[in-house]
Structure formats: structure tokens, C-alpha cells
Design a protein that fits this description.
single chain; alpha+beta; two-stranded parallel sheet; 6 strands
């Protein structure tokens, strides 16, 4: 990167888009995060109707957990449990503030 500001912007862009998708590549190397451009367009819900799963090491499949009417928006859960501060720093919002995990 050209300077510290460019690094911070690049880090923030990737960090805010990386999703939990544990898998192993053909060399046996484990990966915990992935950039999934299509899934990146899904909004957050604490009780999403879809779960993303990695199959065959590279294929990401969305599986519906319950029926949804045609045309309904599909949500996913961002990161899962985290402190309110960490969630805000990563995603830029806090859902259900009363239910958030406060800091010590």
C-alpha cells in the first residue's frame, strides 16, 4: 500500500466483507474466512431463514431453514455472537441493542 491510510481502507473493506466459511483447499490448507460476492448482498438477521455451507471445499450453498414466500428477501446472520462494539466496528450498525453483548 502507498501509505497507512490506504492500508486501513483496504483492510476495512476486506474485513467488513469477509464471511465465516470454513473449508479446506486441495492442498489440505484450512480456511476460515472467504469473500463471497453474491452472499455479500444478503442483509443481516439474528434469525436468518438461510444458512451458508461450504461443500467440496469450494462450493458455497445457501440452504433455507424454513419456507419463505416467493419474492421474500433472504437474510443471513453476520458473524454470530459478538460484542456490540465489535459488531459495530465490522458492520457499521448494531441490531437489537437491548440484546447485544456489552463489554466488561
Amino acid at each position: 500500500c502507498a501509505d497507512a491510510q490506504a492500508f486501513i481502507q483496504a483492510f476495512a473493506l476486506v474485513h467488513s466483507r469477509a464471511m465465516h466459511a470454513p473449508s479446506k483447499d486441495s492442498n489440505g490448507i484450512s480456511w476460515k474466512l472467504a469473500l463471497l460476492p453474491l452472499a455479500d448482498m444478503l442483509n443481516h438477521s439474528s434469525q436468518p431463514p438461510v444458512v451458508l455451507e461450504v461443500e467440496e471445499g469450494r462450493q458455497v450453498v445457501g440452504r433455507m431453514l424454513r419456507d419463505a414466500p416467493a419474492g421474500a428477501e433472504v437474510f443471513q446472520q453476520y458473524q454470530g455472537a459478538a460484542t456490540a462494539q465489535a459488531f459495530f466496528a465490522t458492520y457499521g450498525f448494531i441490531e437489537n441493542v437491548a440484546e447485544s453483548t456489552p463489554t466488561e
